[in-house]
Amino acid sequence: MDKRILLGCLGGAGMLLLFGLLTKLFGLDARQAIDTGIGPLPLIDILAALVSMFLGGALARHARFRWIALLLPSAMWALTLFAVVAMAQPDSPPPMRSIGAALKYNALAIALTLAAAFAGALLGERFGRKRFGALGSDGLMRR
Question: Per the UniProt record, which residue ranges are transmembrane (predicted)?
Answer without folding.
Answer: 37-60, 67-87, 107-124
